[in-house]
Amino acid sequence: MKRQKYFHKLTFGRHNATFAVLGVALVATASWSFVKTYGAGDGGAFQTTPAVISEPEKPKHIKTPEPVKAIYMTSWVAGTKDWRRELVEFVKKSEINSIVIDVKDYTGRVSFNTGNQKVKEFGSEEMRVGDMKDFIETLHDAGIYAIARIAVFQDPFYAKKHPEIAVQKKNGAVWKDKKGLSYLDPGAREFWDYIIEVAKASEAAGFDELNFDYIRYPSDGNMSDIMFPVSGKRNKVEVMSEFFAYLSNALSDLPVPISADVFGMVATNPDDLNIGQVLESIAPHFDYVSPMVYPSHYPPGFQNYKNPAAHPYEVVRFSMNKAVERLSAPTSTPSKLRPWIQDFDLGANYDASKVRAQIQAVYDSGLTSWMSWDAGNKYTRDAYTSDP
Q1: Which residues form the DUF4015 domain (predicted)?
Q2: Quick one: 42 and 131 in the same domain?
Q3: Do 14 and 84 fall within a single domain?
Q4: Which whole number is the average pLDDT over 109-119?
Q5: Which tens digit of pLDDT belongs to each residue from 4-21?
Q6: CA angle 225, 104, 166 (to 5 degrees)
Q7: Which of 134, 155, 332, 340 measures 20 to 30 Å from 179, CA to CA?
């Protein structure tokens, strides 16, 4: 049932008696309802009855499936009805039960009309998906779990508007990575608040989970010419941990889980990889943690493999075994782990057997959930059987 708010009753004094005698109906706004009343001794004053204003109906959510088996969908595909319809039909016929959709991607633009005043005022909305709420309802009608992907600190749009809190070169210019993309300083709390507004708007649109990516310091540009105007030389793990705690607390009242995407080697490395990500410091603040264990992204020599991409089962199994071991401590739980696997060609031809090998490695590490990434949204259809 919609929650309702009531306005306080206002009484118009004797100077309105003329209107009462004439029976003139007063209408102030669409939100107010004025009714003529005749009270003893009040000269026939007009009074307001309690006017009812309904808040927007709360979105309906799907409970997190056990297990989650997801594919990724760009915002552009989500806004292309024929393409998204074809992908949804594929999902219905497969074992997949969830779709991760870009709300805010590497450009920093928000992909739909959020209805959130603060987001609108900032001007980051770009109407790539004109019917996001309706699309999510369509997914729900098919029993498909909808996950909102929000790229955080990689945000050229925000950095251009607020270069004073962007990651900078030592000369004060905005720093860019190898792809020409800029980042916000992870210590910038005003940006944290903006991300929280985007997240809340995503839940209000109907998304069943909020997934945060690029929750880290940059890693692949000219690292010898980089400066952080807000966090300075503070410990990166401490800065990121403060952000994780702030985010988790701010979203704790929402009825949906939150999840974190992390570097694949976060599963195996005890240090922070110089990006502020340590598995044990991330897990307490999120319902799910997703190491991106794409075999093609591991360096030559990893586990003595000349080309890790050619060994999908071994790389994913080793990585997730280590992550499970680390999160088996009393303060956390391995069930939070939900890795990203790859369905794209890089370093090797990823046919159905290689995609399936990764999925089997996830299962053999004692886990049940996974998400599959293909930036082109093509997907190897034979890899996702309807009855695995």
Answers
A1: 70-379
A2: no
A3: no
A4: 97
A5: 332 333 333 333 333 333
A6: 25
A7: 340
Other C-beta atoms closer than 10 Å to the C-beta of 86 total 13
Residues 37 and 171 in one domain: no
Closest CA to 152 of 101, 57, 217, 200: 217
CB 148 within 8 Å of CB 129: no
DSSP letter, residue 123 = T
The CA distances from residue 293 to 74, 166, 362, in Å, are 20, 28, 10
The residue length of the chain stands at: 388
Omega before residue 229 within 30° of 0, cis: no
At 246-296, the pLDDT tens digits run 999 999 999 999 999 999 999 999 999 999 999 999 999 999 999 999 999
Q: What is the pLDDT of residues 179-210, one digit of tens each?
A: 999 999 999 999 999 999 999 999 999 999 99
Give this prediction's pTM: 0.85
Judge contact between 259 and 211, C-beta under 8 A.
yes
Give the list of residues 6+ apart from residue 285 with CB closer than 8 angstroms, or none: 241, 244, 245, 247, 248, 260
Phi, psi of 143 (to 5 degrees): 75, 25
Number of domains present in the structure of the chain? 2
Q: Write the CB contacts of 235 (distance below 8 Å, at least 6 apart in sequence).
A: none
Both 15 and 100 in one domain: the answer is: no
